[in-house]
Amino acid sequence: MEYFSIIQALCRAAMAEPSPALRKQVERLRDALSKDGEEKQAASLGGILAAAERLKEMAPSRIERSRATLSGEVLGRNTPVPVDRETSAPLAEIIFPAEINADSPLFNPTVAQAVSTIVDEWTNFEALSVVDISPAKTCLVYGAPGTGKTRLALWIARKLDLPVILVKLDGLVSSFLGTTARNIGNLFTFANRYRCVLLLDEFDAIAKVRDDPQEVGEIKRVVNALLQNLDVRQNIGLTIGITNHPKLLDPAVWRRFEIQLEIPKPDFAVRKAIAQHFMPPVQAPDNHLRLIAWFTEGSTGAEIEALVRTYKKATTVREEDRRGLLDTLRQFATLNAARIQSERRALLFDDPANLFRAMHEDPVLAFSMGDIGDIAGKDKSTISRWLGRQGGKSGDGEVTHG
């Protein structure tokens, strides 16, 4: 091959830090050369690939180097967790990286980029230390229930290859005076001993505003204990707090978190991606995914997942019991009225002409008459007539232009 020496040099430089996609392309080039009888050149690329693999196996990963800089002991599967002295109930659950779903949570590009910076900081721990900077060690994640906050925190821990000490803070609350504050102290002492991500779920259960007139003096002592322990932990590991009710948090709690990440409800593109993610092994047409995304405006990822489950059931039961998409949406809206925006829900049970017109004219959905016909089981001419129905009724019962 002419200019092979240049190609060889490019491949050698690229394989110094290869991505999976880049490695695949070099492998394809090697295989193509071999198929064409260029065995010597194919062997040369094979040598470059093998050398890159050996270097990868010998060199510690960025995450491994970052873990090495963390103080603390390794948390094992047999490590006993602290318990409530009065009830003997465990104060935390240990979750190891291998037990966490490897799929990245689905968010809009802005949130996804913000999340990636958290992971990048920790995987570049050493580079930051050179300029006397450390990654953010405290993060508060808040938003509506079902938006993926806990899943996000667990996914970050998996990316960092660190075990999670998962604490549901409402479980630390005890009816015994002083026990709740003691539980918090014991929990933080335990977490500070190990390399881990400390995940404080349902954070508002304890971190409430201290001047709440509905609370007794005990809550003030509990919040003070929490603040003191957060201060001590600021330079130890990564701490993530999660809440559905940010307005309940004491202002002093907010100041303890370097990152304050709001997880919004998903937009149209993310809702469609969520529906597509949970759809396999069912193969749903694109216009079905788009309509599901449209009807779930204002819904959370958990609510979209519930609708997809309903859709999958409706498409896999006996042939005579199968429902069309619109019937499935009506069934779901009836059984889950609060999960569908009232305006969209009303359209489902309105005159089909109004529903089809909304589907056709909405700039986000932008359904063609063919799309509507496919979903409604009608031909395009019928849909066209229905879209023209407005104003008063004609003598034959059809709605005509006024």
TrEMBL record:
SUPFAM superfamilies: P-loop containing nucleoside triphosphate hydrolases (SSF52540). GO terms for molecular function: ATP binding; ATP hydrolysis activity. Residues 135-267 form the AAA+ ATPase domain. InterPro entries: 26S_Proteasome_ATPase, AAA+_ATPase, ATPase_AAA_core, P-loop_NTPase. Keywords: ATP-binding, Nucleotide-binding. The keyword Nucleotide-binding applies. Pfam families: AAA. Belongs to the AAA ATPase family. This is AAA family ATPase. It comes from Paracoccus shanxieyensis.
